[in-house]
Amino acid sequence: MWSVGSGKMLGIPSLNTDTTSNKFCHGMYNSKQDIICRECYSMSMLNTFRKNCKPKFLNNSEYLSTKIHPRQYLPICPSNVGRFHSHGELINSIHLENIMNICLNQPMTTFSLWTKRKNIVSRVLKDRDKPKNLILIYSNPYIDKLDVELPKHFNKVFNNVSKPTSNVNCSKKCLECMMCYTLGNPITQIIEVKK
């Protein structure tokens, strides 16, 4: 279920879901607003040169979003750090419950989850605690809008800018930086130049 990272994500395993079948992603991709989702790398890749990944990601989507599995049946991250969604997005509350149980299964592994779905996070965390080894990163959909407050329950906000600026702090490979994968890192606003 875990994918091997490549490019910027080289060395960091990722548990991905299928962007192309995610209703939320379709809505954002087809939005009339000027948001990063209209340029979604995942939607583009999974419909072209990464088509071979779609069946695996679709299987992950179905497995993680249709029922809360007993913890012993959840996938184990093969590293001391893992990412949820270098492709994909939260599908529903069940999906997040399974992700949090994956985190609870591996308390010595640090996990990071990127999501735009504050509503799902808020709904689930109303009734349970966030695992201590999970870093929640709000993926700001708006380009060049850097005044987004840190949402409740989240550790960081990931922002995209259209041009290099002095406040860009995300420009290396993830393993060289680890800002998004280090518990207690004080930086809350991550800023990357969109590709």
What's a quick, concise take on this entry?
The protein starts with a strand and ends with a strand.
Key phrases:
single chain; 195 residues; alpha/beta; seven-stranded mixed beta sheet; 7 strands; 26% helix; globular
Can you characterise this structure?
This protein is α/β, with parallel strands linked by helices and 195 residues long. The protein is built from six helices and seven strands, in the order E-E-H-H-H-E-H-E-H-E-E-H-E. A seven-stranded mixed sheet has the order 1-2-3-4-5-6-7. Strand 4 (110-115), helix 5 and strand 5 (134-143) form a beta-alpha-beta unit. The radius of gyration is 16 Å and the shape is globular. 33% of the residues are buried.
- Specify Rg, calculated over alpha carbons: 16 Å
Sheet with the most strands: spatial strand order: 1-2-3-4-5-6-7
Low-confidence spans: pLDDT under 50, at least 5 residues?
A: none
Class derived from helix and strand content: alpha/beta
* Overall geometry: globular
Percent in helix: 25-40%
